[in-house]
Design goal:
about 280 residues; mainly beta; 4-stranded antiparallel beta sheet
Amino acid sequence: MHSTTLEVFAEIDGIGSASGLFLAGDLLYIIGDNSGYLNEYNIKTKQLQKIKILFDHTLQQLENIAKSLKPDFEILCQHNDKLYILGSGSTQKRNLMIEFDLKTQKVVQQDLTETYAKLKAIAKIDDYNFNLEGAIFRSNEWLLFNRGNGIDAKNGIFKIEGADLVKTDWIKFNSFKLPNINHVESSFTDATLVKNEIFFIATAEDTKSTYADGEILGSFVGSINLQTLKLNFSNKISDHHKFEGITLLSQSKHSTSFLLCEDRDTEELKTVIYKLVINH
């Protein structure tokens, strides 16, 4: 059995619609799904720095970008010295990938339209059910997590061989069943790898659309075996939060701690970071 505790870790002004995060030492990197910035927050000094990652001159603003135009950056994952920021793919405007080099601060933008088309074809997922929300990049393999909040409830994990997401040929899709609340199945909102265990968060949202928001019924944390992609456990952690990002904070013999971010689906530039402790 696993028990969990959830508490507020930090409140940060200047960030809205937080959808992904990654902790590197004292620096917490945070993205928002309607922002053209990568946020760098020092958890010790509480200083916030904004790094421009979107260079679209047609946009009037880079914060609170209109829903129809936003890049929908839902994924922030790390590999070696780089951060990878991916759009959800839920509309044609949401197919970008940003590579950010933590050492040089260099920003590289790539188009994943062709890759996303391949993923949809292999998994037999149409445009209305494709919605990537989490990713893990390890050595020569990617795992991408599709959020099954469309009408077909297509929760699943794409396994992709090869480091280059733009030019990928070997793809496998694994359907996944997650716990439900009031007959509404929860759906992946992010995932991270700790040693050989995938930890994920999922939310039950009363909607049949990857575009329109619905009532939040609750959120879960759980883990998946990396080799078999089978569920190890899941625990409900909230009745009303919509957690969209997870990153490792610390691990000991008896517990694993994560930081979570929440998308409140408002235009307010304020975000709350939570600390989640899982006791083994």
